[in-house]
Design the sequence.
């Protein structure tokens, strides 16, 4: 049950921007009864002076059956079985469905089922992010098929040993991988792990030594490059395809020209995978409730006391609490109702009667509550809150003739 002062329009407290889903409760006749009783008990919280001091006055919803009351709340009666005064009772005296007295919602909606029942009011909408995103991705990839372009390819380069005798210790070849990292392969003692290669014997042997260092997975570059050799020419290929692999090779040659190279080229990223466009297929969830039906409910509040002073103390809040107007608001389960106090207060007493009966002062106060009903209560076969999704696409199946001579068309 939600607190009486709950408001569905309440925002999260400052600094707390998480969104919480809160269920909605129905607005029924019982809710309105409870709200005015709660207003009388808790908001007014009436007290009066008695032999026990200034104490709270009990409030009863109508007059409960005497036997039940005696068993369950003996403090309300004295030893003789009479009710202790002062006391306040409240009862509902009538319900009016007046088309001329409505709240904010004026129109009448009929159900889309065309069964004569009332329709529904949309109270909130939210975008279904995952379904909307799926439609956008599908549309983008379909469009990408028509963007053209070549397929995905890895970049290649060549390194040529032109004169191994001109290569000195410390000469090196610098390769840049597709991911942007660069690696040095230095002339020295042959060591694939250290990334060093030996220039010896001939151009072809030297080229083979360099190829082995580039190819080894335990070397500095790992598996980022693959290399092959043909005579003195080494062909190096990027392991990762894409245009980002079209990088430059840097050669450090301290002596005469012992090396030559061609930079990486030919790497392509293929056709554009996603083609940006405006997605018009937005999936929206709509939260709806039955339209509110406004009713005017009359309540009669009866105040009984033994003394005029007690009656004055109890009637005054009904007159002065609302100020210069006779209207007030009540809340229950997040719903807001408006009450109007009748301007006339009926007073009765038996002071002029000289008989021996108990002296009694009585006042009647009439309150009319403008409330609304959402749903049909326990007898409603429809959900209180219904979630619907909009239609974003209509699909129609297409038919075509069976190709002649295709006997395996219907085989799995």
Sequence:
């Amino acid at each position: 049950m939600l607190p009486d002062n709950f408001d569905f329009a309440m925002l999260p407290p400052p600094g707390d921007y998480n969104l919480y889903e809160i269920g909605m409760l129905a607005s029924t006749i019982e809710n309105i009864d409870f709200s005015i009783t709660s207003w009388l008990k808790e908001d007014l919280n009436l007290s009066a002076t008695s032999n026990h001091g200034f104490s709270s006055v009990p409030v009863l919803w109508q007059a409960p059956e005497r036997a039940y009351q005696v068993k369950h709340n003996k403090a309300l009666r004295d030893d003789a079985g009479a009710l202790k005064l002062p006391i306040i009772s409240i009862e509902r005296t009538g319900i009016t469905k007046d088309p001329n007295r409505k709240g904010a919602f004026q129109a009448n909606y009929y159900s889309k089922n065309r069964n004569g029942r009332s329709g529904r009011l949309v109270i909130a909408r939210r975008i279904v992010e995952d379904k909307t995103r799926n439609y956008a991705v599908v549309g983008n990839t379909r469009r990408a098929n028509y963007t053209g372009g070549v397929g995905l390819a890895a970049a290649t380069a060549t390194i040529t040993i032109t004169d191994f005798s001109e290569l000195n210790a410390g000469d090196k070849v610098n390769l840049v991988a597709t991911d942007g990292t660069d690696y040095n392969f230095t002339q020295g003692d042959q060591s694939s792990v250290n990334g060093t290669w030996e220039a010896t014997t001939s151009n072809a042997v030297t080229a083979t030594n360099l190829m082995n260092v580039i190819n080894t997975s335990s070397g500095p570059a790992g598996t980022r490059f693959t290399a092959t050799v043909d005579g003195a020419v080494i062909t190096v290929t990027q392991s990762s395809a894409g245009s980002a692999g079209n990088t430059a090779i840097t050669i450090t040659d301290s002596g005469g020209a012992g090396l030559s190279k061609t930079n990486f080229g030919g790497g392509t990223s293929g056709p554009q995978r996603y083609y940006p466009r405006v997605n018009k297929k937005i999936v929206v969830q709509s939260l709806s409730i039955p339209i509110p039906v406004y009713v005017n409910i009359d309540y009669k509040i009866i105040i009984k006391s033994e003394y005029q002073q007690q009656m004055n103390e109890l009637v005054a809040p009904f007159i002065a609490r609302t100020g210069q107007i006779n209207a007030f608001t009540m809340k229950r389960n997040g719903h807001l109702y408006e009450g109007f106090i009748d301007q006339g207060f009926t007073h009765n007493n038996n002071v002029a009667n000289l008989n021996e009966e108990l002296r009694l002062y009585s006042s009647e106060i009439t309150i009319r509550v403008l409330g609304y009903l959402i749903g049909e209560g326990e007898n409603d076969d429809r959900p209180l809150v219904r979630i619907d999704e909009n239609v974003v696409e209509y699909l129609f199946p297409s038919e075509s003739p069976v190709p002649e001579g295709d006997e395996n068309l219907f085989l799995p």
In short: The chain has two domains: 29-119+291-381, 152-269. The radius of gyration is 45 Å. The mean pLDDT is 83.
